[in-house]
Structure formats: C-alpha cells, structure tokens
Amino acid sequence: ATTGAPSGAAASIARAIEAAAPDGAPVVAPVVAIDPLAGAGSPRRWLAARGEPLDVIVSVIAEPWSPTGAALASVEHHRAAAARLGEAGVHVVWLELWQAGAAEVAAAADAARAVFPHVALWRGDTSRRWGSIAIVASRAPLRLHREDAATAALAALYVGDWPARRSPSPSSDDRPRLAHGATARRLDRATLTAARLVAYYRDVLAPLPRRDEVYVATSGAAPWSASAAFTAQLGAAGADGEP
Cα(3)–Cα(8) distance, rounded to whole angstroms? Predict the structure, then answer.
C-alpha cells in the first residue's frame, strides 16, 4: 500500500475522482492505493490502523483468482474502506476485463452496492484485448466539475450506474465468487475480450441507467450525453470483435 499519488491506473483514477468530488469539493485528504502484491499485509488491518479520514481509496486487483486479490472486491473489504472514508470519500476497485467474465464483474459490483448507495462503472480505456474497468463506490453520486480536455476525455469512459439488483450475487469472504469465477475463466479462457467484450457491452452494460449530469460540457460546447458516450465506447470495441 502506498500513500500520496499512486502510479499507473491508480493515479489516473485518483485524478479522475479529484475532478468528480461530490458537490465540487476538492480532494484534500490522502489518496491511498492498495495492492496486495506490494507487501502491504492485510489491507483491512492496514486501513483500520489509519487514523485520518481518506477521500480516495484505490484497490487494485492484480490476480482476481487469488484469495488475496479477490478479497479487495468483497463486501467485507468495502465495509473496511467505508469505515475509513470521509463523507465525500470514494472507493475504487480496478478489475481487468481480460481476467474476468460477466459474472465476476457482477459479483464485484454487487459487493460494492451492498455497502455503498452509489456505484458507477468507468472504463480505464477502450481496449478490446487488455481492457480494464473501475467500480467506483461512493455515498453520493459523482459529477465531473473540471472544464478541461482531460475531464472531457474521462467523461467519455463513463459506462453507467450499477443498480441494486433484485437477486444480487456479491463476492464475500464466505462466498468468494470473484476468485472462484476468475479461476474458471482462467481455465476456459472465456474472459471479456474481443467478441465477448462486444457482446457484454450490448447485453449487460447497455441496459444500465446513465446520468447526463455526470458531466456538464464547457460553455459553448455541445451538450454532453451519457448514452452517446457509451455508444462511442461500443463503437471503439469494434463490431467485428477483433483486437
């Protein structure tokens, strides 16, 4: 675990959340990235030992089939994160789509929704072979407030809001659905890449609710549409499903 500005994907989502702080509040408390492969020990014990409230906690799942990695997307880990977050805090869980299937993403998102009232999905990119997705959990809905090109580019990666499903299947300590499913996907190679990713967009992600108020375009620019942004992502995924 590291404090300050984390690197790579964690850094990009940290900057994203800074732009999306609820009600435009600046991010002033520490940003913390948790990577169980970096020798941090138990992430939950580490979080519990921190005294100050946090604005952003980024949990990076490097190996979702491992118990340690999958635990970062469990109901219990979200509870531990929520206990350390301030009222406007955000917990972000990064999951690589090329390491998971639709059921595994649902298990991770349902776990977040079991603890936080607002959960949104954001793409890290639009790659069809090595794509990633961020599960962004918060107590209040997020909106992008900065008026610059980087924020506009971020808005283009908003997928939609994950609802409270009638029959959820959250990953938890006693039912580690993410680890079990990712292990199976690792063996059968039925992960969300290429044609499977395109089908996932159309069958699972397309029906998700979206909020146009996530981002308000700069003065004089054409109105921003969450649905149009999503459609552009689907186009980037490629109708032929090839990388």
Answer: 14
